[in-house]
Design brief:
- The protein is mainly alpha-helical.
- The protein has one domain.
- The chain is built from nine helices and no strands.
- It has helices spanning about 1-25, 30-55, 55-70, 75-85, 90-115, 125-155, 165-170, 175-205, 210-240.
- The radius of gyration is 19 Å and the shape is globular.
């Protein structure tokens, strides 16, 4: 176990060195700036979570769980988690939109930099190639309808659609980054607003028949189980990577 954590620390250290290398050598590339913005927002969010951990553990639990759920791809569940915890509709929409923006900035930056062969992170290689393949498959369909097609692709919650794949499709369609993100984030916000309104009405309806405390209890159990499964799966991925070699790319 100690050896595992040493390797994990070494991996993080290499990641920081390569990030510094990116800043020194490729800061003029827009995708590097986008990635750095996403990482900066992540760091600020982490600091805020740390603050909440000591000042408001209940809110920390809700917001951190929601963040993990979004990373897992569970936008709707993340929104319901906030609403069921008593967070207002406005702040639920705002926070969940913020999470999606951060995820898109980081994922888009990594995927595009890999596609351009500027970075080659072996740990994320499989996920990046899968995202690229999915975007390539959807590209032709979206191209027929232009910006509206991309907006609807991001907005409607079908399998393997969403802001990350949508942003990559926008890149493949040669949209400027600012135009790409305006379309993608508009679709994301519209989708989150729809989810939030439906989720709020659903919770109000369920609350007529089931006490909210019971709903929170079982909801918390389900979310906890999903998070544990997600973490175990990805911990195995990281562990397998650590014991099969490191990324030597500079």
């Amino acid at each position: 176990m100690m050896n595992f954590f040493k390797k994990l620390f070494s991996l993080c250290n290499k990641g920081l060195k390569k990030l510094a290398y990116l800043i020194r050598k490729h800061l003029n590339i827009i995708e590097v700036k986008i990635l750095l913005l996403g990482l900066a927002l992540t760091a600020l969010t982490g600091i805020y979570f740390l603050y909440l951990l000591f000042t408001d553990p209940g809110l920390y639990k809700v917001l951190s769980s929601t963040a993990i759920i979004h990373i897992m791809g569970g936008r709707a569940l993340g929104i319901v988690t906030c609403l069921s915890a008593g967070i207002s509709l406005f702040y639920t929409i705002l926070y969940n939109f913020f999470l999606e923006v951060v995820i898109v900035l980081i994922a888009y930056g990594i995927v595009v930099l890999v596609m351009r062969n500027i970075i080659q992170p072996k740990l994320f290689d499989s996920a990046v190639r899968q995202a690229e393949l999915t975007a390539q498959r959807q590209k032709t369909k979206i191209k027929k309808y232009g910006s509206i097609g991309l907006f609807l692709f991001v907005m409607f919650p079908f399998f393997m659609t969403g802001p990350v794949i949508g942003a990559i499709i926008g890149y493949l369609l040669n949209y400027r980054a600012i135009n790409n993100f305006l379309i993608v984030f508009s679709g994301t916000l519209a989708s989150i607003m729809i989810y939030a309104l439906i989720g709020n009405n659903f919770i109000n309806f369920i609350n007529q028949y089931i006490h909210m405390d019971v709903l929170k209890k079982w909801g918390g159990i389900i979310i906890a189980v999903l998070i544990v499964i997600f973490l175990i799966y990805h911990l195995k991925t990281v562990k397998a990577f650590l014991y099969t070699g490191d990324d030597d790319e500079e």
